[in-house]
Specification:
Length: 283
């Protein structure tokens, strides 16, 4: 049986799903779910992923991610591989944890991000595990609604922009949009799909699979601004936290590299970046 098509290019946007081998559980406890998220946090940092929605179920997970550097395969190999090693060691088992390779659906972002984000966070409700998405601890819904602290790797603002410029109003519209999905069938089938988008988008994606020249492709320089030394980036920052935020937003430095610069643990950097009361730096 041929492997599924893998299309990668800078800025590609995916709905990624991975299921347990023979539909077995990939999380046996809340500790397992938290460990998975810790490893995912490391993956987003290392591979510069942008996550807009996620949900961890018992035997599978969903991720809605953008890859500015076009490196989905490397990121997923790291995530599934490292978590499998940890899980096997913890439960004294051997062999595959996941059912084959992960399943990516290449998505036309602007047209489908809201619908996919709703589909993902409604998974526990559709499975009759909870009555409301806000009652499921391991999805992006609670952080998007400011019910939980937002992980540094979750791009809540990117998703909410699709619901308005004012954040509070956008959150209300997002909540209404998600809850409206409880009473309708959402026409998304990640198992059967390879692409999700317009005919033009799909045609361009198919050209990518059959040619070395991809119509979507852009260079790294157009994705990230030119790399500047850390000492230049921190000029104009009034305190350490704002300096850490500015360095991280440049896209060229990982949490670990920033932590080494300031002589702190990487979790300190993560808290600084996630701080809502962000101090300003002079440009």
């Amino acid at each position: 049986m041929a492997r599924p098509i893998r299309i990668q290019y800078p800025g590609a946007f995916y709905h990624v799903m991975s299921r347990g081998n023979a539909d077995a559980r990939i999380y046996r406890s809340d500790t397992d779910k938290q460990k998975f998220l810790d490893i995912f946090s490391e993956a987003t940092d290392r591979y510069h992923l942008i996550c807009e929605a996620y949900c961890l179920m018992g035997n599978h997970y969903h991720l809605l991610i953008e890859t500015p550097l076009g490196n989905l395969s490397s990121a997923m190999r790291f995530l599934n591989g490292k978590y499998t090693q940890w899980f096997n060691y913890k439960y004294d088992r051997a062999g595959h944890l996941f059912q084959g390779r992960y399943k990516p659906v290449l998505v036309e972002k602007d047209a489908y991000v809201a619908e996919l984000a709703r589909y993902i966070v409604l998974n526990p409700v559709k499975a009759r595990l909870v009555e409301h998405p806000g009652r499921w601890r391991y999805s992006s819904y609670r952080a998007t609604m400011a019910l939980d602290r937002k992980p540094v790797w979750l791009s809540v603002d990117n998703l909410l922009r699709h619901f308005g410029r004012n954040k509070k109003s956008a959150m209300k519209r997002y909540e209404k949009f998600v809850l409206e999905g409880l009473n309708k069938d959402i026409d998304i089938d990640p198992v059967q799909q390879i692409y999700l988008g317009s005919d033009q988008f799909i045609e361009s994606a198919q050209i990518c699979t059959n040619s070395r020249t991809c119509l979507f492709e852009v260079t790294r320089k157009s994705v990230l601004p030119p790399k500047r030394p850390i000492e230049v980036l921190v000029n104009g920052c009034k305190d350490r936290n704002s300096a850490m935020q500015k360095i991280y937003r440049s896209g060229h430095y990982t949490l670990y590299e920033i932590a080494q610069t300031f002589g702190v643990h990487y979790s300190t950097v993560s808290r600084a970046i996630n701080n809502r009361n962000r101090a300003k730096c002079k440009v």
